[in-house]
Amino acid sequence: MMIKYCDLISYGCLSIPNIQEHDYYLSLAFIPLTIIASLVLVRDIVNLLTEGILQGLNFSEVTESLLGIDGVLGVRHLRIWALSMDCISLSVTLATDSSANIETILNQASALLKAKYDIFEYSLDTVPESRQSNIVSMGTR
C-alpha cells in the first residue's frame, strides 16, 4: 500500500509546529513587496495611458543626433511617445539643405533611430531650407 504525501500531513508526520505564528510573520514580510510592485505597475500604466516618454530617452540627445547627419540644418516638431513599455514612436520634421540628397538623409535618420534608440515606429518628414534661412530647432517658433 502506498502512502500519499497528503496522508503524511494529515497523520501529523510532516507537521510544522506553530504554523499560524509563522504565517503571520510571513504575511507581514510580503506586504512591503506587494506595495512596491503595485506602485511600479501603476506608474507604468499611467505612463502608457498618457502616452508618456520612456525613461532613459532624452529629447536633446535625439535632436543632437539628428543634427549630426550631413545635410540636416534643423529639427522641427520632434515628438516622442510610448506605445507600450518596449515600443517607442517618434515623429519629426527635418530641415534639410536644399542641395542635399533627401533619400540619403532619410536613410541615415532611419538607421540612426533604429540602431541607437530602438524606435519601433517613426515618421520622418523633410523641409528644404537654404543655409541663410532662420532654422528653428525642437519645434519652437
UniProtKB/TrEMBL annotation:
Residues 56-119 form the Cation efflux protein cytoplasmic domain. Keywords: Ion transport, Membrane, Transmembrane, Transmembrane helix, Transport, Zinc, Zinc transport. The keyword Membrane applies. The chain crosses the membrane at residues 24-42. It comes from the Eukaryota. Belongs to the cation diffusion facilitator (CDF) transporter (TC 2.A.4) family. SLC30A subfamily. This is Solute carrier family 30 member 8. It comes from Plectus sambesii. The lineage of its organism: Eukaryota, Metazoa, Ecdysozoa, Nematoda, Chromadorea.
